[in-house]
């Protein structure tokens, strides 16, 4: 079974920085895309940033210029560098991947989520 495990969340003051990481493990043949989503109480889960094996990236308008997504293909890991954090960035952040494995073939997978809180 493929698993995505996030780490790096925490409490920071406005203007601070955090780096999230997500490592994919299991019987993985290919990862087409990895990305980050976030969701708060009473809100829909929304895209923050995503990247593909072809090198393309996409960001939500609200984080452009502040967040950077990167990928280590050898380690099956994706990162989200978050700078100039704002209180409105407070949410649970989820890792997402579109992955081919020997047991499930093509499927979408989600991590368990990591809490990011931005507050004075």
Number of helices: 0
Shape: globular
Low-confidence stretches: none
Distance from first to last alpha carbon: 40 Å
Fraction in beta strands: over 45%
Largest sheet: 7 strands, mixed
Radius of gyration: 14 Å
Which structural class best describes the helix and strand composition?
mainly beta
Number of strands: 11
- Encode the helix/strand succession as letters: EEEEEEEEEEE
Mean pLDDT: 93
Q: Level of helix content?
A: under 10%
Short description:
The protein has 120 residues and is mainly β. Helices cover 0% and strands 60% of the residues.
Structure description:
The chain is an all-beta fold and 120 residues long. It has strands spanning 3-7, 10-12, 18-25, 28-39, 46-52, 57-59, 67-72, 77-82, 91-101, 105-110, 114-118. Strands 2, 4, 5, 6, 9, 10 and 11 form a 7-stranded mixed beta sheet that branches. Strands 1-3-8-7 form a 4-stranded antiparallel beta sheet, with no helix packed on it. A hairpin with a 3-residue loop joins strand 9 (91-101) and strand 10. The N and C termini lie far apart (40 Å).
Question: How is the secondary structure organized here?
Answer:
Elements: E1 3-7, E2 10-12, E3 18-25, E4 28-39, E5 46-52, E6 57-59, E7 67-72, E8 77-82, E9 91-101, E10 105-110, E11 114-118
Parallel strand pairs: 2-11
Antiparallel strand pairs: 1-3, 3-8, 4-5, 4-9, 5-6, 7-8, 9-10, 9-11
């Amino acid at each position: 079974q493929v698993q995505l495990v996030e780490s790096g969340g925490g409490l920071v003051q406005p203007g601070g920085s955090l780096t999230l990481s997500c490592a994919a493990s299991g019987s993985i043949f290919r990862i087409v895309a990895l990305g980050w989503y976030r969701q708060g109480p009473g809100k829909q889960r929304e895209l923050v940033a995503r990247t593909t094996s072809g090198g393309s990236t996409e960001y939500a308008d609200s984080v452009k210029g502040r967040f950077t997504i990167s990928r280590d293909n050898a380690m099956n890991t994706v990162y989200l560098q978050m700078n100039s954090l704002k209180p409105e960035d407070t949410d649970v952040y989820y890792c997402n991947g579109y992955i081919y494995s020997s047991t499930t073939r093509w499927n979408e997978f989600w991590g368990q989520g990591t809490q990011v809180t931005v507050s004075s």
